[in-house]
Design a protein that fits this description.
This protein is α/β, with parallel strands linked by helices and 493 residues long. Helix content is 37%, strand content 19%. The chain is built from 17 helices and 20 strands. The strands form four sheets. A nine-stranded mixed sheet has the order 3-4-5-2-1-8-9-13-14, with helices on both faces. Strands 17-16-15-18-19-20 form a six-stranded parallel sheet, with helices on both faces. Helix 12 packs across helix 16.
């Protein structure tokens, strides 16, 4: 089967979140199963550090009454282990950020990704790609589904292409003023409440949901949550109507990159057999790196991610203040960027309690590896979480996740209970409410087990390390869905 994966980001080429990790790892996993997977994304400034070669192929698109030209580059990325094409248009993509700067969205984001949508479909023809499945990801590729269904499907080479649309986070919908509809090249008749319009705006995520042959999201529980309010963020009706072609598949991770035995970013490697000493070495090195007192027995809590209320960082900061005020013997390490207010609060927290709290306000993949490996507890108080990847990374390093019971965190974290202790299946601790009462209960539960039930703690660490969290099983499920939606005959036959 031939799969073309279209995404606005893919690690290590360009990344703002979990979307990049998924789209960087899935092509490799599909090829390992014997399928031909190809990746296409914009040629951002960040992609220019990777080796590329020109294809000599130009694309011309009419957007809003003007002709826009770009080119295709072929890129070599060993980590992705699949052909990668970049859509080059420097005025659109050669910028400091992917979608925004200083937390302000680019004003021409709709136009940028309309061009990308056409470039994805034109690549099939211009680059002579064989495509059975066009796998689209998030709002930035939503228009591709509509163009394929309305314009391209009757053209030679496109008749049998089926589209699968994956929702990575339904909160980000690509909503633009109604007049942006003129940029798409589609007739205004499609700007209606059943297809491309939502709340008097052009909604590109909704467009992808309506026109795709199948829809997936990144965990079974999240697939249920988004068909109801408030989980669907206003699109629950659309998803409920398409529930017969909606599936949830939990993400995997690249276990060659996230691997305690060979992680290039760690000061010390360890396996299941050397867990205790290896973990201690990583913890000591992390405390030294972050300027915290080296205290091997002091519980160390880590948080890594976008500093947003969705991720629950406001709750974590408030809890850290309370714990420090109580004189709790524990340490915290925060890593991330995002909301300016949360960044300021984190800096103030770390300045007030320098022996207990360290905050690094930046994006750093290398430091993220060391934090996840060196901490005892990884805290994820997300108010909603489509899948989550950091809890899966934590398993690889014997770090116990403490999570809010939502979305993919329900599917991937086996909660500690008398039953799961007895049958050795517990991998973490879940709390039911994303509020101060819930997060406090969850962390206190973890601290109590860490201090007073070392055998149970070790069991959770070891059970997590033995889980198969690779992409192998997830990729097989995607292939099953590809086969279900695959077009055997041209439309009308």
């Amino acid at each position: 089967m031939n799969i073309l994966i279209a995404s606005s980001e893919a690690a290590p080429l360009a990344k703002t979140g979990g979307l990049a990790d998924v789209c960087g790892a899935l092509p490799k996993a599909l090829r390992a199963l014997g399928h031909e997977a190809t990746l296409i994304l914009p040629a951002y400034r960040s992609t220019k550090k990777f080796p590329t070669e020109p294809t000599g192929v130009e694309i011309k698109v009419c957007i809003g009454g003007k002709e826009v030209r770009g080119t295709y580059l072929k890129c070599s990325v060993p980590e992705i282990a699949a052909p990668v094409y970049l859509v080059e248009h420097n005025m659109y993509y050669d910028r400091a950020g992917l979608y925004n700067e200083n937390n302000v969205d680019y004003g021409d984001n709709c136009e940028r990704f309309v061009f990308f949508a056409y470039a994805v479909l034109e690549a099939v023809r211009l680059l002579n790609l064989k495509v059975d499945i066009l796998h689209l990801n998030d709002w930035q590729t939503g228009l591709v589904a509509a163009l394929q269904a309305i314009f391209y499907r009757d053209y030679p080479g496109y008749e049998k292409i089926a589209t699968l649309f994956t929702i990575h986070n339904i909160a980000y919908q690509g909503s633009f003023p109604a007049e942006a509809m003129s940029l798409t090249g589609l007739h205004w008749k499609y700007f209606n409440w059943l297809q491309m319009e939502c709340c008097d705006q052009l909604n590109l995520l909704k467009t992808g949901l309506v026109f795709s042959d199948g829809i997936t999201t990144v965990s079974p529980s999240y697939a249920e949550e988004i068909t109801q309010s408030p989980g669907g963020c206003g699109l629950e009706g659309v998803l409920h109507n398409r529930k017969d072609v909606l599936w949830g598949i939990a993400n995997g991770i690249d276990v060659d990159v996230w691997n305690s035995e060979k992680d290039a970013f760690l000061p010390s490697h360890f396996s299941l057999a050397t867990l205790e000493e290896g973990k201690r070495a990583c913890k000591t090195a992390l405390q030294e790196e972050m300027g915290l007192p080296v205290c091997p027995e002091t519980p160390l809590v880590g948080l890594v991610g976008r500093l947003t209320e969705q991720k629950g960082f406001d709750l974590a900061i408030e809890l850290a203040y309370r714990k420090m005020a109580e004189g709790a013997n524990m340490q915290w390490i925060f890593l991330g960027t995002g909301d300016a207010l949360l960044e300021r609060k984190l800096k103030e927290l770390a300045q007030k309690y320098p022996n207990n709290v360290a905050a690094s306000i930046q994006y750093s993949n290398e430091l993220a590896h060391r934090i996840i490996a060196g901490c005892d507890i990884f805290l994820m108080p997300s108010r909603f979480e489509p899948c989550g990847l950091t809890q899966l990374y934590s398993y690889q390093y014997g770090t116990v996740p403490v999570v809010h019971a939502t979305g993919g965190l329900i599917d991937t974290v086996c909660d500690l209970s008398d039953e799961t202790i007895a049958n050795h299946t517990a991998t973490g601790i879940r709390f039911n409410n994303a509020d101060m009462e819930g997060i406090t209960w969850g962390l206190n539960r973890a601290l109590d087990v860490y201090a007073n039930q070392q055998e149970v703690w070790r069991q959770m660490q070891k059970t997590g390390m033995q889980l198969d969290v690779s992409w192998a099983q997830s990729a097989e499920k995607y292939v099953e869905i590809y086969k279900r939606i695959q077009r055997k005959f041209p439309r009308g036959n």
